[in-house]
Backbone:
């Protein structure tokens, strides 16, 4: 192969300038090196002040958060009960923000329509309980909502290889689902580059579990762009705006 001739202009990368701005800085090859959507913050509403929910949501709107993350547990797929459709209805009454619901349930076919009717824009269901997911993916889309699949930390990326291009989002869990306050599991992020290689460029990849200003850069290096966080957004020691700003800056710190 011959080099450029004298006076010739160097060949530009096939990435657009905007995409190049969102590529992670060069790291080891195990990290994601391609383009991805911008960083988004998804406050986990389980940690909001329920007595002052409208006030918290108003502050989050002012902070520019992109989505509200609602954890749903059925007491079976996970051992505890969490937020239900009435909570989503209340959120929808007080905000136009995007709402995603993480269905930690054994029967998402039954509950996905319930939460969409309540006001969810996107529902995540677990591949571990729907190993043949195409029918449910189509059903959710037919109801006018976006659809995502969640993976427990030990579930391989290959489990969604056949359907990932049909999805709007993937959730790579970085804790065992069911309880807040667990320690971040980096191995949950290690599947993300494989997910992105098989997916459309605009796919949102959400990480959930132990996400804070220290762990967010790790997740972003692997290719996550949506940071679901509970105590890191609703902390005791600082205001919500300060917390959201710090988390966003942490995520963006590893991007060009």
Residues:
């Amino acid at each position: 192969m011959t080099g450029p001739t004298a006076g010739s202009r160097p060949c530009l990368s096939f990435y657009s300038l905007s995409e190049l701005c969102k590529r992670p800085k060069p790291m080891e090859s195990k990290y994601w090196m391609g383009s991805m959507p911008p960083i988004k913050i998804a406050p986990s509403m389980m940690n909001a002040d329920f007595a002052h929910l409208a006030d918290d949501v108003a502050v989050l709107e002012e902070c520019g958060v992109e989505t509200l993350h609602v954890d749903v547990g059925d007491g079976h797929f996970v051992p505890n009960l969490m937020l239900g459709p009435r909570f989503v209805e209340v959120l929808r009454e007080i905000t136009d923000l995007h709402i995603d619901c993480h269905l930690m349930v054994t029967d998402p076919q039954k509950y996905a329509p319930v939460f969409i009717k309540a006001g969810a824009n996107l529902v995540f269901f677990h591949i571990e309980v729907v190993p043949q997911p195409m029918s449910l993916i189509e059903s959710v889309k037919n109801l006018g909502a976006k659809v995502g699949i969640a993976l427990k930390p030990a579930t391989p990326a290959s489990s969604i290889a056949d359907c990932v291009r049909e999805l709007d989002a993937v959730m790579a869990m970085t804790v065992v689902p069911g309880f807040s306050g667990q320690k971040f599991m980096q191995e949950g992020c290690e599947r993300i580059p494989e997910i992105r290689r098989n997916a459309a460029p605009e796919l949102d990849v959400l990480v959930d579990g132990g996400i804070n200003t220290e762990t967010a850069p790790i997740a972003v290096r692997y290719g996550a762009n949506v940071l679901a966080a509970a105590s890191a957004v609703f902390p005791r020691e600082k205001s919500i705006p300060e917390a959201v700003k710090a988390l966003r800056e942490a995520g963006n710190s590893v991007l060009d």
User: Anything to note?
Assistant: Residues 61 and 149 are 26 Å apart (CA to CA). Confidence is low (pLDDT under 50) at residues 1-21.
